[in-house]
Every structure is written in structure tokens, then in C-alpha cells.
Amino acid sequence: MSRLYKTIEPSVIDDEMLEEAVKKQGPSGRAGQIAQLEGIEFKDVHNLQLDYRNILKIDNLWRFKTLTKLQLDNNVIEKIEGLNTLTNLVWLDLSFNNIEMIEGLDELVKLEDLSLYSNRIANLENMDSLVNLQIFSIGKNHISKLENIIYLRRFKRLRTVNLAGNPICEDERYSMYIPAYLPNLLYLDFRLIDKTTKEMALEMHLGAVSNLVYQEGLTFKKLEKIRLQEEELALHKAAYVEYLNGPGLFNVMFSEDPEAPKLLMLPGVPEFVEIYKAEFTNICQKLFHYGLKGFDTRKKELEHFLECLQEAVEDNQQKGVKIIKEFEEKNKEQFSEIQHFTDPELLESGIMDFRVEVNQLWSKLMNLEMQLVDQLELFIDKDTVINTVNASHDLHLLKIDNQEDKMVTRANGWMADIIEKLHTDEINRNRKRVLEINIYVSHWKDELDFLELQDMT
Fold first, then answer.
1. What are 220-272's pLDDT values in tens digits?
2. Which residues of the chain, if any, have pLDDT below 70?
3. Which of 129, 163, 198, 359 is the most buried (most CB within 10 A)?
4. Nearest 5 degrees, angle CA 242-CA 244-CA 246?
5. Pairing of strands 187-188, 191-192
């Protein structure tokens, strides 16, 4: 393939281009004709081919929620952008463009195959989130430093790399440097890396690689420690007890108290402060453990409540299905008989009787739906209000109040969010159910209207 240069006015990715591409890639034959008549939803498209279209800017792709393969090669794209919503992408081709920097890939965590062949990229960077990357083509770019290749060590699943056509390929160390520093590679520049080459490469760079592995191990341990700390802190915040599992709150109070140094100069005060600190910390730790226990209880209660809620909805739906089934078993034969009536008076009487049955069906289904709505409204109308303690002029008490206020506010916020979500979900479910009921009943009314029209003719 050859690069498409800016010989004509650059194109934008608009709806017309997208619709054309989707139709072109749609099914053939009769299935294709049906698809064109009914239309293909962008959200249902898995593969999208937008090559050779002179596209300058990546845009307007946010509706392709399930897209797994995107082809944007042979355009005039200068910047990787507009891809953050395509979180299901597995395959991405941006080769033969004018890209100068790797960026805009942070959300593509499922990406396995990435081609940036024939661009203007000088550095390997900003790809840390691509944990599933297996195939990477970066040939014919401006990569000139062998050391930059070390960046690729973080991709543990990487098996195939193409670097051909970069300045680094002219370095005499290239053929042994890459296999040594990327020992998990199977293919380099479209060629299989044999076992002998790997062994020779590692032997040549054993000291440097061993030191790198050691440093990476230290870095990993530090990052792992930070990650565990962040997870622990996130749990404590969720329980509203962060920094209460030690003397943290006490230390903050005294570090920001301008009068504390003066008090510590008085006889006996330092010893008293140490006793106070120990007792205060003990209370904080008790509160901390109580908060964690409460969080676990609250979490289990919420899970149980949501399970009960789901059971109630499913039970309601099953009752509705049963009502409809009973209606159909009872009235299908009757409706079939009405269709064959030739006597106008008999037909009119039959239709009137059937209308009564349909209206009764509507009433039963709507009553069932309203029962569920009334039950769930009990939770919506119940507001939880907790008053906060007035701020004290004493700095120590103020710190305590601030901590309490934070806990109460976030607890209220948590409850408000849950109630709001339940309310929103219930409204949406209710509207959908009412629509289903009305559509179903309307069907039978339309059938009756049709019979009446036939009778009139």
C-alpha cells in the first residue's frame, strides 16, 4: 500500500460517510436488501472500514459502542483522538497517515492488534493501558533510539513486533538488542526469532538485562505497595473511616493548633498529651473497626434488598405473563369464531363482548403494575435527614466535627444516590411496562376494529 497524500481537500467523518461505509460492509443478497430497507444501527456494527478517504481528523465515532475492528489506514490523520468511547476495539489500523505522536489510546484496554506503520512517530509512549496488546506494527517511522524499545517490556502478551524501516534498524546492535530486551517476542519484522538467536542475544546483554529485571522488580514492588494502599484507602473511604485507624486525626489536630507548642512547655502537659493521644487513638480505632463492620453490614443489606427488589419485579412480570396466557387461552378460540361470523348482528355482539374482555385485561395488567409501583414508592418517599453538630470554636473539636460532618454527608449522599437510582430505574421500568400493556391491548382492539370494518363492507 502507498500513502495517500493531501492532494485533495481533507474529508471529515460525517454521517453520510459512516452510513455509506456501513452499507458497503453489510450483508449481501436478500439479507443486504432487507438491511438497507430497515437500516443498520451504528451501535450494532462490529467492523468499520474507513481507509482511503482522505480523513484528516478522527471524529463522530462515539455511536459505535460495540465496534471491535476499525480500519483508518491510508488517510491524512495527524492526531490520534476521538477513540476513547470505542472501548471494545480489538484491532486498530492507523497505518499510512501523518501521525507524529502516540496518544489517545488510554481507554482501549481490549486492544490486541495495533498498526501505526508508516507515520512520523519518533517515540514509543502513552500506551500503558494496552495490557492485552499482542501484535504491534510501528515500522517505517522515525524511531532512532534502541533504548526506546525497552518501553515495550511492559506488554507481557506482546508476541509480534514490526520495526522495519526505522532508523534503529541501521544500528549494528539491532538484531541482538531486540530479542535480548524483549525475550517473549516470537516474531520480529515478520520473521520468527529462533531459540538460538534468543540465547545468543541474552548472553550478549546478560548484565544489562539482569540489572533491568532487578530494577523492574523493585519498581513493581513499589507500585504494588501503592496499589494495595490505594485499595485499602478506597475501602476506608467507602466506610467513611479513612485515617481513623491510627493517630492521624490527633496529629492533624495538634499540627494545626498554634497554641499546642505553648501548652507543651508547661510542666506535666507533655505526659498528659501522650496519655490523651493514646486514649484518643484508641477511640478512633474502635470507631474505625465499627465503621468497617457497618460498611460490610450495609453492603450485605443493599445486596439483599436489590435481590428482593429483582424478585418482586420478576414475580410481577410472571403474574402479568400468566394473566396474558389465561386471556389468550380463554379468548383465542372466541376471537377465531368472531372472525367467521357472517351475521352482522352476531358479529357486532361478539365484538362488543370481546372488547369487554380486552378492557378487563388492560385493567388487570395496569392494576398489577400499579401495585408494584406503590410498593416501590415507599422507598422513594422516605427521606433520611441527619443534622450536623454546630462547629466548635475549639480547633480540636472542630476537627472532630469536620470528620463527623464528612462521614454524615457522604452517608447521606450514598443513600440519596441509591434512592435516586431506584426511583429512576422504577420510572423507566414502569413506563416500559405501561407501553407494553397498551401495545398488547391495542393489538386486540385493532383486530376488533378490523372485523367491524369488514362487517360494514
1. 899 889 989 889 888 888 888 888 888 888 888 777 778 777 777 878 878 87
2. 1-8, 25-40, 375-400, 457
3. 163
4. 125
5. antiparallel
pLDDT score, position 457: 64
Report which of 149, 154, 158 is spatially closest to residue 176, judged by C-alpha positions: 149
CB-CB contact of 120 with 141 (8 Å): yes
Q: In which residue are the cell numbers 488517510 written? A: 75
Q: Are 133 and 127 in contact (CB under 8 A)?
A: yes
Q: What is the pLDDT of residue 287?
A: 87
- CA geometry: angle at 131 spanning 128 and 136, to 5°? 85
Alpha carbons 411 and 386: distance in angstroms, whole number: 10
Q: Are 46 and 25 a contacting pair, CB within 8 Å?
A: no
The C-alpha cell 450494532 sits at: 44
Q: How far apart are CA 347 and CA 244, in angstroms?
A: 79
pLDDT at residue 2, as a whole number: 44
DSSP sequence for 145-184: -GGGGGGGGG-TT--EEE-TTSGGGGSTTHHHHHHHH-TT
Which domains are delineated in the chain? 11-218 (3.80.10.10), 283-456 (no CATH)
